[in-house]
Amino acid sequence: xxxxILTTLQTYNRQLFLADALAGVTVAMVAxxxxxxxxxxxxADPAKGLVTAIVAGLIISALGGSRVQIGGPTGAFIVVVxxxxxxxxxxxxxxxTFMAGLILLIAGALHAGRLIQLIPEPVINGFTIGxxxxxxxxxxxxxFGLTAEQVPxxxxxxxxxxxxxxxxASPAALAxxxxxxxxxxxxxxxxxxxxxxIVAIAATSAAVAVMGLPxxxxxxxxxxxxxxxxxxxxxxxxxxxxxxxxxxxxxxxxLAGVESLLSAMVADRMVAGxxxxxAELIAQGAANLGSAVxxxxxxxxxxxxxxxxxxxxxxxxxxxxxxxxxxxLVMLVAAPLAGYMAMPALAGLxxxxxxxxxxxxxxxxxxxxxxSDQFLLILTLVLTVVADLAVAISVGVAVGLAIRLSRRDTPxxxxxxxxx
Length: 420
Hints:
Elements: H1 4-8, H2 14-41, H3 46-63, E1 71-72, H4 78-109, H5 121-138, H6 140-144, H7 155-164, H8 171-190, H9 196-211, H10 218-222, H11 239-271, H12 277-293, E2 300-301, H13 303-311, H14 318-338, H15 343-358, H16 363-366, H17 371-386, H18 389-405
Antiparallel strand pairs: 1-2
């Protein structure tokens, strides 16, 4: 359970630092708008996303079991976080995140890191696609500039509400959102190592400001972003509150553990390395404790940002530390500029994130899988969208393990690198 940074620093040198520093700054430019967008989509203040990226990102890199893992808020948590805030308030989310951190610490201490191999791959694929669908539909309001007093969290009710207000759509908002998505895709293809994401968001947001377009920005909707980290504080704890929030904490812990270990496995294949799963769980636990103490969101290893780090030349956990410190520097120095980011641009970013999460390029392969695996994927997907994540995970894992136990010729799950 030794942190990977202690191993890599034994042979650290100036050349490695330069590579890590460049990669860390590059990842920060990707993580900055993503962290803001994820917080907003989760129903939280956008500053909470920055706090999470800074505090949790730093802890995950300092204590984690992967050389190149980048941590922070991720799209997988949007559905859970939104639901917890609606039902229990933001203070309830903070306590649930704190509890999830403790659960992950215990899991790491009990050497539970290898248990991910017991989770059937169709379950992972099913709820990932389901989450992607929910994220994409949650961004339609801002992408089209729709005006609605309140959008329900329930999937079909949400679609009905958005359809009812379709006449309020803003051509300017849609143009900014589509232009942002087009720029992000184009820059990724033309300059794959360049942080084109921040350039695309900055360019379209600048167009909104210069042309005076009637489009919402972070500042117009939420006010000024803070220029400092909040003071640390422990959440209010009571036995009744703990019992009430335990199911949410368990889901957060499960998601954080699974996504971080999947991300570490993908990173291993990209750098020919070997992560330490129990150290990774302990790092995720400490990161969620730290994020909660500073009033942030749940955090985990981020597959897309980890892949960006590897692609930019990151070699050791120092790159993740540089990434967190770079976001902190932006918060201290340039928070007002970040407030000019246009909401449709961030919506377009999250829709692309959802598209990448769904891994459309793998769908043809799913059609060649066993019928039982196809059924398990669809079952988990449908339950994720129409019920909730806790139900989808519990039912999917139970049915999946029952199917696996009934087989004797099932090979181990083969996780493949997601498309960036």
